[in-house]
Amino acid sequence: AGVLAQAAALDAEIGAYAPAIPVSELGRVERTILRSAVWEMLYSAATSTRETIRDAVSLAGTYAGEAARRLVNGVLRSIAGASGRGG
User: Fold this and answer.
1) Average pLDDT in the 58-81 region?
2) What is the spatial distance between Cα 75 and Cα 61, in angstroms, rounded to a whole number?
3) Half-sphere exposure of residue 44, counting CA atoms within 13 Å on the CB side?
4) Which stretches within 1-87 are classed as H helix?
5) Nearest by Cα to 34 from 68, 82, 62
6) Residue 16: which of 28, 32, 2, 34 has the closest Cα?
7) Is residue 35 scored above 60 in pLDDT?
8) What are the phi and psi torsion angles at 4 (to 5°)?
9) Phi, psi (rounded to 5 degrees) for 47
10) What confidence tier does 87 reach under pLDDT thresholds 50, 70, 90?
11) Mean pLDDT of 30-49
């Protein structure tokens, strides 16, 4: 529910760190993984940032391939660094 409620803010955050690919043009799997992971990193303390990134990268690699894995890793690490949450 939190991801859906914050979808616009999450898309803006993702877009700021992946400007070459508009969020609307990301694959459904990549977009969903990124939204969920960014929400966990910014709005939830239930999971560490490092664990969130690891899980999201693994999911992206499994369900969307190597290019998606690299994209998710890069975006999430950039957001983690900018938010001061580590990586």
Assistant:
1) 96
2) 14
3) 17
4) 2-5, 7-17, 28-43, 49-64, 66-83
5) 68
6) 34
7) yes
8) -65, -40
9) -130, 140
10) low
11) 94
